[in-house]
Amino acid sequence: MTDVFITGLLFVVVAAGTLSILFKDLYVSVILLSIFSFLSSLLFYVSHAPDVAITEAAVGAGMTTLIFVWAVHTCSPRPPQSRGIKLSAGLLIDVLLVAAVGIALFIFLPPLQGTPSFLRDFLFEHGYKDTGALNLVSAVYLGYRAFDTFGETIVLLCAVTGSIYFLSRAHH
Amino acid sequence: MRTKTDMLDVASRKLSPYILLFGCYLISYGHLSPGGGFQGGVVLASGLILPALGCRSERREDLLSNFALSVGETAGFVLLFLIGVSGIAATGYFLADPFPETARPHAWFIFFMNLAIGLKVGAGIGLLSLLIIRESLEPSDG
């Protein structure tokens, strides 16, 4: 049952991604990408990764859509002449090529036999005792690699500062 | 054309407190359930900008000031830095858990880190989106 669900979801995700390339109206593409993110988050949730699912839903389906809509709004003031699907031979060949590579990888790559379990076992054994966090994802990214997280917040600080600077310059 | 429909009202105004509450839950329970500072911060930011999207553009500055959000973001970063320095004071290592071993199962360190990161991410992304909205909805100034 879950396998059927995941497979169906994967097909819809691929369809949404492909259609977002093919559509001529960029707003339609942005909404399709938003659907793509939302279904991916559903996929993550079904695969027992709720932390990633929340991030994907909040960032991918929420913030990214806002920023893309802004970018499209700012960069193309005129709506496109036709709103339908743009099909050219080159694009079709690209899509078919990517699909062929995907199918080839899916068929010829050997399935992963026995995922490495050392880290998982270590976390199960020591994670709660070392950090006190029941959510082991939190234990990793705030306990074991807090330095990384600190660096990420510095990156975000720099990004926001730079954006404020450029946006306020563009405004005046 | 500025007409206020029920749908817009519900989506932009009535939904916002619940989104903010959910963001606070994600941040403060990040050590127990899925979520954490980053995810909760982004949810907080979306709860902050939804009312700003729905209201009139001249009232947007009253609703959420840029200055308050930038203060929030800087405060989050300073808080994070202070937590790191308190690790130096307690154990000698930057960003080490400053709480004693006996208090470990309570996860105070993770909780405070989540709070600081949630404040920082929520204010930062909220500020960024608000600037972007202002920029795109008021193009006549530029």
Describe the structure.
The complex is a heterodimer of chains A (172) and B (142). Chain A has seven helices and no strands. Chain A is an all-alpha fold. In chain A, helix 1 runs antiparallel to helix 2 (26-46) and helix 5 crosses helix 6. The mean pLDDT of chain A is 85. In chain B, 70% of the residues lie in helices and 0% in strands. With 142 residues, chain B is mainly α. Chain B has one domain (6-137). The mean pLDDT of chain B is 84. Chains A and B meet through helix 3, helix 5, helix 6 and helix 7 of A and helix 3, helix 5 and helix 6 of B.
Short description:
The complex is a heterodimer of chains A (about 170) and B (about 140). By secondary structure, chain A is an all-alpha fold.
Largest interface: A-B, 43 and 51 residues
**Which residue ranges of chain A are poorly predicted, with pLDDT under 50 across at least 5 consecutive positions?**
none
- Tell me the Rg of chain A in angstroms: 21 Å
- If helices are DSSP runs of H or I spanning 4 or more residues, what is the number of helices of chain B? 6
Task: Quickly give the structural class of chain A.
Answer: mainly alpha
Which term fits the overall shape of chain B? elongated
Structurally, the number of domains of chain B stands at 1
Shape of chain A: flat
Distance between the amino and carboxyl termini of chain B: 22 Å
Strand share of the residues of chain A?
under 5%
